[in-house]
Design brief:
With 288 residues, the protein is of the alpha+beta class. It has seven helices and eleven strands. This is Protein BatD.
Length: 288
C-alpha cells in the first residue's frame, strides 16, 4: 500500500509545483489610480491618471482600450497615454502604461470618478483589473491674478526698450560700415566658391589628374570673378592675380608656393591633390 501511495504523492507534489511556477511566470498586472488634486476650483482642471504595470517587456501584455471613465459633476476635456520601462529592484525590468484624463468641473460641490474595469490579454488568456472610485471637492472659482503695471515698472520697460533699440542701431551701423569698406572680393564670392570646392571635388576618389584640373579651374573662376576679368593666360598671370587678393596672407603665400612648384604642367604635377585642395580651401575662407 505504501509503495502505491509514494508515487501518487510525488505526482501530486510535482503538479502543485508546476502550477505554482506557471502562476509565477504569468505577469501580474497591477493598477494604480490618482488625481492631480482632491480640491479643484470651478475654473480649474483635474487630471485622473491610471497606471498599469507588469514585469517584462511592453508587448508581453496587450491591454484593451479602457474607454472613458464614468464621472459625476465633471466634463472630459481630453486624454492621453504613454509607455515607459523602469528598473524594479525586486522584479527587474518593469513595463508601465499610463492613461491621463483631463476634466473640467461642472459646478461647485462634490465630484467623483467611478470605478473602471480594464481587460488585457496574456498568452491568449483574458484577465481584468479594476480601479477604485476617487472623490474630489469642487470649490468656488479662483480669482485670476491680473498683472498691474505701476509707473515705475512702465518706466523700467521703456528704458529697457530704448537700450535694446540703441544696441540694435549700433550693431546695424557697424555691419553696414564694415561692408562698405570691404575689398572687392566680397565674402559672398569666397563663400560661393568654397561651397563649390567642398561639394564638387572629392580628393579621396583617386582621380588625381582630373581633381587637380578641376581645383585650378575653380580657383581661376574665383580670381576672374573677383577681378572682373574673363581670361587667365597662364600660371604667371594666375600668381599675379592671387597676390592682389585680400585675405589671410599666410594661406595666400602657401597656395602661391604650391602653384609655383606645379608650374604650367598642372595636371601632371606630383603635388598631392589633398594638399592642393586644403590650401585652396584655406585661401577661400573669409579671414578678412
Amino acid at each position: 500500500m505504501n509503495t502505491f501511495r509514494r508515487p501518487l504523492i510525488r505526482l501530486m507534489l510535482l503538479l502543485a509545483v508546476s502550477a505554482v511556477l506557471g502562476q509565477a511566470s504569468r505577469p501580474r498586472v497591477s493598477v494604480k489610480t490618482s488625481l492631480s488634486s482632491e480640491t479643484v476650483p470651478l475654473n480649474g482642471e483635474v487630471v485622473f491618471s491610471i497606471e498599469l504595470s507588469w514585469p517584462g517587456p511592453l508587448d508581453a501584455v496587450r491591454l484593451e482600450d479602457p474607454g472613458e471613465p464614468g464621472v459625476n459633476n465633471l466634463m472630459l476635456r481630453g486624454s492621453g497615454a504613454s509607455n515607459r520601462i523602469v528598473e524594479d529592484s525586486l522584479s527587474g525590468r518593469r513595463s508601465l502604461k499610463r492613461f491621463d484624463f483631463y476634466f473640467k468641473p461642472r459646478s461647485v460641490g462634490r465630484a467623483h470618478v467611478k470605478p473602471m474595469t480594464i481587460g488585457y490579454q496574456y498568452e491568449g488568456r483574458r484577465e481584468v483589473v479594476r480601479t477604485d472610485a476617487l472623490f474630489l471637492r469642487i470649490t468656488a472659482p479662483r480669482e485670476e491674478q491680473r498683472q498691474v503695471y505701476t509707473p515705475g515698472s512702465i518706466l523700467l520697460w521703456l528704458l529697457l526698450f530704448l537700450f535694446m533699440a540703441a544696441a540694435l542701431f549700433v550693431t546695424v551701423r557697424y555691419v553696414m560700415l564694415r561692408r562698405k569698406h570691404r575689398p572687392r572680393a566680397t565674402p559672398g564670392i569666397r563663400e560661393k566658391y568654397q561651397r563649390l570646392l567642398l561639394s564638387t571635388i572629392h580628393p579621396e576618389n583617386g582621380q588625381d589628374k582630373e581633381n587637380r584640373a578641376e581645383i585650378l579651374r575653380l580657383l581661376d573662376s574665383f580670381l576672374m570673378e573677383s577681378r572682373g576679368q574673363i581670361r587667365i593666360s597662364g600660371m604667371e598671370q594666375r600668381l599675379e592675380m592671387l597676390a592682389s587678393q585680400p585675405g589671410d596672407e599666410a594661406a595666400r603665400a602657401r597656395l602661391a608656393k604650391t602653384l609655383q612648384s606645379m608650374g604650367d604642367m598642372t595636371e601632371e604635377s606630383n603635388i598631392a591633390v589633398q594638399r592642393l585642395f586644403d590650401e585652396v580651401n584655406d585661401f577661400l575662407k573669409d579671414n578678412t
